Amino acid sequence: MKHTVLFAMTVVLLSSQAPAADLKFLARTGDVPPGVGDGIVLTDFFFELTSTGEAWGVGKFGTTDGVSLHPDSGLYYYNGTNLELVLRQGDVLSDGGVSQAAVLFSSGDDDPELTHWPQSNGIALRLGGFPEGDDVDHGGYWTYEIDGGFHFHFNSDLVETADQYIFTTPSIVTEAGWVLSESKFIGNDEENVDAVWLTSPQGVTQLVGQGYSPAPGAGEGAVFNVIVGGVDVSENGYALIHGKATTDRTSPPLTADPYSLWKFNPNGALTPIVVGDQTTTADGQHIFGSTFGGTINDSGSVLFRSVIQPNDLSGPPIDGVWLARDNQSIRQIVAVGDILSDAPHGFSVSEINGDRALGSTDKVMLSVELSDGNERRTAIAVDSGDGLEIVAMDQTPLTADPSGLVLDELLRYEMSDSGQVFVLASLREGFGGIDTPNVVGLWGQDFDGEFSLLAKTGDLITVPTGQELAISTLSLHQVNDRGEALFSAVLADGSYVELITTGVAVPEPSSWIAACLGLVLLSAIRVKP
Q1: DSSP assignment of 103-159, as one string?
Q2: CB neighbours (10 Å) of residue 235?
Q3: Of 123, 129, 56, which Cα lies nearest the Cα of 99?
Q4: According to the model, what pLDDT value does residue 478 have?
Q5: What's the pLDDT tens digit per position in 208-256?
């Protein structure tokens, strides 16, 4: 069911200190959203940004006098200009003999029952509750195509022997339509029979890995003992799985095998990235232990965290981050104990923080703790192939800005697929005109790597009602491939808003072409014969 109600919204950021930033307004609590009628307002919501600048979000509803209508809620689509209600709690979806009442939230839980994955021309949905109809014993999920309606996808469509498997849910659905699914085998005497499947946008499904099937690269007779599941899948169909390989088939196994990583190529080949206690580093002097997750990009490169030890176990484990390229070479990005070339004198890496990002060109972003034995600093660093370079560090200016702003605490950081870094940080009082505590700013890199201040607390926002309200708190949520950032703010009146900033976004190719043609035309006009 599609509710064709549109609501156009724009917003202006007014500030005498921050640079002008182009903002797109998604929603605000207390406002009447499209498609629900008078007297109903948004009480809470959350959006997710697509790679092309649209957004999908779920909003909760209440009355204008402050009464919550939970679980009444709606699924919204933002097309770059307008907000549109696509699905409301209780709407009944029907397709091919299957029907399901849309459950976005359950009545007793504030956490959403809905799981959704934005796609290039719509969205994939797993709703709360159960579909009804023929052949839905093994479940499935819905997709919605813009101007194309809802369609139900049976898990039984994935493989011919689907009746032998219980499919939990798609673990990942990419924007391009690749589906990574997990299942359990029915009727096998072995206790651990998890399986991971990859389905192409054309509907072709391949088995990525299954418990007690051969584990490539792990030695003669080695099989998968544990498959944790699909860790990641790229828009080109490279999949990454995390698990254990063993030759010990007792249940439970008598050996404590380390976690390892395998990559599945779109052509069907499953290859090891790191097999714990077997794979060695490039110098041959160290061996990898357990790996901790990973991420894969469209060229098949894999970024992962692991510990290493000397081959003779003569030293303690060393924590590090590594990049495995598609040609199987593994390069160390950073390890505890490293000295970064642009770190303060006497400081070395004392800890590696959890969040990391891998861009389409193998650019890496991560965060580390630096220490000289007495003092600690948090730094954000990037590696484009020539070693780590610090781009932001607490107690330090982010840019050579004459304003003299100094970062106090790094709160969040993100990197786009094209390699633009975004930083949310508090500002140190007493520098650059900051005369109050707890001021927070959001910066983004342009395509040339220069940072711009996009928003900060205290800035005034003109909301759709015409009011000018100051930002009280600021949070960064997500960035996309174009360098647009989704962020939220609490305003001075207590309302919550979510916005998209395009202040450092990379222009679309058509914009580049138009700009270049304009320059050529201008040059032609100015040239005298």
Answers
A1: BSB-TT-SSBS-EEEEETTEEEEE-BS--BSTT-TT-EEEEEETTTEEEEEEGGGT-
A2: 18
A3: 129
A4: 97
A5: 988 888 999 998 889 888 787 678 999 999 999 998 888 766 555 445 6
